[in-house]
UniProtKB/TrEMBL annotation:
Domain of life: Eukaryota
Family note: Belongs to the THEM4/THEM5 thioesterase family.
GO terms classed as biological process: apoptotic process; fatty acid metabolic process
All copies of domain Thioesterase, residue ranges: 163-234
Reactions mediated catalytically: octanoyl-CoA + H2O = octanoate + CoA + H(+); hexadecanoyl-CoA + H2O = hexadecanoate + CoA + H(+); (9Z)-octadecenoyl-CoA + H2O = (9Z)-octadecenoate + CoA + H(+); dodecanoyl-CoA + H2O = dodecanoate + CoA + H(+)
PANTHER family xref list: ACYL-COENZYME A THIOESTERASE THEM4
Protein name listed in UniProt: Acyl-coenzyme A thioesterase THEM4
Annotated localization: Cell projection, Ruffle membrane; Cytoplasm; Mitochondrion inner membrane; Mitochondrion intermembrane space
GO cellular component: mitochondrial inner membrane; mitochondrial intermembrane space; ruffle membrane
């Protein structure tokens, strides 16, 4: 595996990959991405990262988290696989997913490729460096139930109606969480359809749970349902359904094979 990546990187260095994915170098870059993503499987079936040097996980507790955010995080962490003091493993139904600042980093060798391919790009939800200003969130998946829950704390830069979270920011988080579950279950996907019902205004700075579950998979289509609630689940803020279509990486570069 390491040899394979070293060979690929050697090829990349040799051909001076530029930031853009256009012009003369497009075909070569496409070919490298294609071969890298050939090894992308649903991330539920592979260890999250095969190397000791992991990319930074942006969903770790930080000083911007409110006590409510920390409490909800601790609640789900306690339900994840853990090692106790005796070094024994305790099985839990949940698994915390890491959150990287580029989706390419989830692909085999992606951490290295991300340094060469459109290196300045960032995942929208991880694009603001100031902690707590926009999207603070952590996603936990339940493999057996084919579901996930995201603990989300909105920041001051996400205002829509005065004192409340912008509907587009809520849609962003729903797309992110349902898309993460669809990607976890089905591999590379894109959002084809997203339907959202906003039921109650969400106070800015509040902490909410975004629950997503698999509805069904039909051929290339993965259907996901979603509900956004208060952390005690007594208040319903938003409901949504989403359709994700499995894609080949070539699709991202205009080819349909
Ligand atoms: C790549 C790495 C992955 C790694 C793993 C992830 C791990 C987590 C990582 C990081 C977390 C972040 C997660 C973020 C998630 C966010 C994702 C986005 O926001 S994506 C941006 C917005 N979406 C677009 O820009 C799509 C634009 N649309 C298209 O490209 C195409 O229309 C596409 C791919 C959706 C379908 O095109 P076709 O040509 O491949 O396929 P056709 O034949 O049209 O459709 C296939 C089936 O789907 C149905 N379909 C297509 N669109 C539909 C629609 N809008 N409504 C209903 N059905 C639809 C069709 O009727 C067909 O169904 P029948 O198989 O015949 O039954």
């Amino acid at each position: 595996m390491l040899g394979q990546i070293a060979r690929r990187l050697g090829q990349l260095h040799g051909q001076q990959i530029c930031n853009g994915l256009n012009g003369v170098r497009f075909k070569e870059t496409h070919r490298h991405l294609q071969s890298s993503f050939k090894t992308v499987r649903p991330i539920s079936t592979i260890p999250l990262w095969p190397f000791s040097s992991r990319p930074r996980d942006f969903s770790q507790p930080n000083s911007s988290w409110s006590p409510e955010m920390r409490k909800a995080y601790d609640h789900y962490i306690a339900l994840c696989d853990t090692d106790n003091e005796n070094g024994e493993k305790t099985k839990g139904p949940w698994r915390k997913l890491p959150s990287y600042n580029r989706s390419i980093k989830y692909a085999t060798g992606g951490i290295h490729l991300s340094k060469f391919i459109q290196a300045e790009n960032r995942l929208f939800t991880r694009s603001v460096k100031e902690q707590g200003a926009t999207f603070e969130y952590v996603v936990f998946v339940n493999k057996e139930e084919k579901s996930c829950v995201c603990v989300f704390q909105s920041g001051r830069l996400l205002e829509g109606a005065p004192g409340h979270v912008h509907g587009g920011a809520i849609a962003t988080m729903i797309d992110t969480v349902t898309g993460t579950l669809a990607g976890y279950l089905s591999g590379p996907i894109m959002t084809a359809n997203l339907n959202i019902d906003y039921r109650n205004p969400m106070p800015l700075g509040s902490v909410v749970l975004i629950h997503s579950a698999l509805d069904r998979i039909e051929r290339r289509k993965t259907f996901i349902t979603c509900k956004v609630t208060s952390t005690d689940e007594s208040k319903l803020y938003t409901e949504a359904t989403a359709l994700f279509v499995s894609i080949s990486v070539g699709h991202l570069f205009g080819s349909r094979n």
